[in-house]
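Hey, quick one: can you model this chain's 3D structure?
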Amino acid sequence: MTVQREDVLAARDRVSSMIDRTPVLQSDALDRHVGTAVFLKCESFQKTGSFKARGACNAVACLSSDERSRGVYTHSSGNHAQALAFAAHLHRIPCHVVMPRSAVQAKVAATRAYGANIVFCDDSDAARRAAADQLGEETGAVFVHPHDDPNVIAGQGTACLELLDEAGPLDVILAPIGGGGLLSGTILAAQGDEPCPRIIGCEPAGADDASRSLATGERIVEFTPRTIADGLRTPLGDIPFTIIRSSVDRIATVSEDDILAALWFAWERIKIVIEPSSAVALAPLLNGSVDVKGQRVGVIVSGGNVDLTAVFTLLEGTV
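Sure thing. Here's the predicted structure for all 319 residues.
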């Protein structure tokens, strides 16, 4: 099953009443540091605290009434878990979620608050998939993949549509990449702009499977992520890989120190609370590894669901 820009446009109409149109912000401090105008699409203000609400709401809305009556299930480290639980809550249907035991407790609590049944598993992607398969057999629910689903990808692309609508033409758009749903949706959404902006994916050096997959031409599915950006620890999906490898400008990788520095800059200078996965998309601008001087730049700030205790502990060594 393929996904095209027309699907993103349809998703925008479909989910408009379920989600928030998040603000596009600018920061004088950021613009001065980078040397150009940067427009931040702040999905940290979205329902459930991340862009994931867009894809989950679109996917559930696309199910038939019979499918919805069976409920939905997924596996997720947190943001998609919350989003699917939220979408299921809107439709008053059951939701079952497999989460790794290392999941951020704030995300676990939020997922449970939306009424989801949570099953915990080991941290590996293989363990997630196995637990989800068993959960599907036990419940008979419909699986909604966190990123390897055309309807999820189309929903995620609506964030870019809104960014372009409000900021106007952009030369470059940066977005974080984990499973690739947001980046591939962003690529599809941006294809309607003339001239089409360059799309840059951003990922932690400690979870650089997307960068390595594009370099080798083969999707890497087995690796051990080592990064504070918990939302980007998942392997790149098959459908996103197909879209990204043909259309992305490049993948920029950043260190853990870069991520923490970007997180601190966002909190202290821009005055917005973002999560480490969002900071990954800011980091290449702040460390200068992506040169955008004189260009109009957009950044998809993917979410703001933070494990404050863990982050504050790490930040103690940076100030």
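One thing worth noting: The domain at 5-50+154-315 is CATH 3.40.50.1100 (Rossmann fold).
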